Amino acid sequence: MTDQERVSSGTAGISALGLAQLRKRILVVEDEAVIAMLIEDMLDDLGIVCVGPAGSIAEAQRLIATEVFDAALLDVHLHGTDSSPVAETLTRIGLPFAFATGHMLVEKADFPSVPVLHKPFDLATLAKVVDGLLTLPGAAVTTIDGVSA
User: Fold this and answer.
1) What is the CATH number of the domain that holds 142?
2) Which end of the chain has fewer CB atoms at under 10 Å, N or C?
3) Would the pLDDT of 147 be above 60?
4) Which tens digits make up the pLDDT trace of 114-129?
5) Across the chain, what does the average pLDDT equal?
6) 7 found inside a domain
7) How far apart are alpha carbons 113 and 73 in whole angstroms?
8) Domain span at residue 67?
9) With 80 as the cut, is the pLDDT of residue 131 above it?
10) Could you tell me which residues carry 4-aspartylphosphate (predicted)?
């Protein structure tokens, strides 16, 4: 690629590392290691960097305080504990997020506009939710396949 082509494409002066740093970053809060690895692989397939995963509320709060990310995917229950404190922190700082759950009926009255991703989900469903989080911060995603708001 010539310098003119690099300038035209917007990549002039951006190293490979710089391009990697431009990738969107999603905080994953999931207590099941196998599911967390699966989500991490799916995000990687979508060209998104996985921050974490955090397996507990304390770990999630630490990552929120110390890491930079664009949105979050939050398991509803972490080791049997409601993850609402993490959702409250994300809401307070204005970062979009979606809940993920393996339970059929999940009512998050305090977060009515937050999308709920029902496990198990596939790459296409995750991509739709992530796209909604990254392009319309804070916007609700209507029902799409296994996803409801």
Assistant:
1) 3.40.50.2300
2) N
3) no
4) 998 999 999 999 999 9
5) 80
6) no
7) 14
8) 16-148
9) yes
10) 75
